[in-house]
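Hey,
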Amino acid sequence: MAATCMVCDPRPTGASNLAHDDLTLVVACKRGEVSAFEELVKRYDRKLFRIAQHITRNREDAQDVVQEAFLRAFRNLDQFQGNSQLSTWLIRITINQSLMKMRKAYRKKEVCVDQEGLKDLSELSLDAVDWAPNPEERYRSSELRTILINALQTLQSGLSLVFVLRDVEGLSTDETSAALGLTQAAVKTRLMRARLQLRHYLTPYFKKNVRTFARAPRN
């Protein structure tokens, strides 16, 4: 696994138009148009759910977090001035809500949460991955998915979350920085460390598959 971004840095085509459309929907929400907020929920609920599930490691908790995040966003929509991407603002709310839920759970179990609030975060949903339709390739992809999840569990929580936001969800360095309250330098450093550690973990798997392919009979 090369130490290169799994999701290219340039924003997807039409990203700026999407951001502008978000602002249009926000303005409509502030006018009291409920349908506009419903559109925002439809647009971002899957992404926010994946992030919440990565932190909480529990599907039901993640669902609760996303509902609470959207509720808080709706109540505080006047505070959003458009100085950043709406998606970044929503992600930050979701992360904060996820950490609050984790802290409450840890307090109930009388377990201390680390200073960053990112302790023992391991599970990752990779619903966004486009698996191959071929049955054999689908099996290999499923195997790789499991290996990637296990690999992410070996990372420190702070590294894991940065990797998920940057290379799984495709946020830019600036968006990740804003969502996590980190400097861009810190995001880049953590991402590099995460990629290098994942490459080290995944190298044996890819070497094994290269050898298997080399031994496979040619038609």
